[in-house]
Structure prediction request, 94 residues.
Amino acid sequence: MARRCELSGKGVLTGNRVSHSNIKTRRRYLPNLNAVTLLSEALGRSFRFKVAASTLRTVDHRGGLDAYMTKADEAVLSPRALKVKKEIEAALAG
Prediction:
């Protein structure tokens, strides 16, 4: 699977490694991904995602997976997370 956060879409960035003698060499900045299990209170079950540490802090700040998913942009969510979002919205609506 790609090195991309399933909830925020944060991925690999590129830049330069600069030596003391100012030689530039291309390098990759990898996101801090963690496999976590998040609980949906609306559905009463848990989901396993590969999430960046910064996104995990945002999920906690917003009040859990359900609150995060209702505000999340559908363009950045992974296909699996998009299905979960649709399930949560249907459970909260009905």
Summary: The first strand starts at residue 13 and ends at 18. The chain has a mean pLDDT of 96. Strands lie at 13-18, 24-29, 33-40, 45-52.
